[in-house]
Amino acid sequence: MLLSYSGRHHAEAVPYAPALETAGLAVRYPGAPDVALHDVTLSVQAATRVALVGPNGSGKSTLLKAVAGLLPVEAGKLLIYGLRVGACHHRVAYLPQRGELDWRFPITVQRLVLTGRYVHLGWLRRPRAADFAQVHATLDRLGIGHLAHKQVGELSGGQQQRALLARALVQEADMLLLDEPFNAVDDGTRSTILQVLRELKGQGKTLLVATHDMSRIAEHFDRVIEL
Question: Are strands 49-53 and 223-226 parallel, antiparallel or unpaired?
Fold first, then answer.
């Protein structure tokens, strides 16, 4: 039996394939009577920043979770760099909405961010000095290096969002899925996230960001998809 983080789920991307391609995609939550996402067809090129917009219930989070492999495809096609979901598990990093996590769980910021390295380490290998160094460099990059040993429940909302982003960044994924990263954060955190998105695009990363924040959206994103 292969562990989900065994490091053996790796496949090279299909040359010249879009970063994300769907056709007639339908997604249903387990046990739900109706699909949450229906007949979605889109193509996203690599190294682009894409904003997913639409009212609550339009399927933004559902689409991100399907791309992340957290929800099964009911019908249609979903390819990531030309491959099926899960063909290369570390290629996609998912940042959930902050409210989906239990911030009372007794874990430090450093340990939370370190879990982003498990896709490379596997569950049975211990983190190395290089992994800890990457975690601390990323925390410093996001301005929360001094909070490494604090419990996550002691953080402000903006600090929690930065910690979640740090966890996604240390995965070193080609595609990052961010679900409402600007929701209820301070201006400093918003500016930091936008700067990181610019840097990631420059590194050839693909960003899909579900957001309700429409302020200067054309300035910060290369494309807007409305669901």
Answer: parallel
Distance CA 72, CA 219 (A): 34
pLDDT for the residue numbered 3: 37
Q: What confidence tens digit (pLDDT) does each residue in 75-124 have?
A: 999 999 999 998 877 899 999 999 899 999 999 999 999 999 988 876 66
**In the predicted structure, residue 135 carries a pLDDT above the cut 70:** yes
- Whether the pLDDT of residue 57 is over 80: the answer is yes
Question: Within a 13 Å sphere around the CA of 76, how many CA atoms are in the beta-carbon half?
Answer: 23
Cα separation of 22 and 59, whole Å?
14
Sign of CA dihedral 15, 89, 170, 196: positive
The dihedral region occupied by 202, where left means phi > 0, alpha psi between -120 and 50, and beta the remainder, is: alpha
- Nearest by Cα to 165 from 179, 154, 153: 179
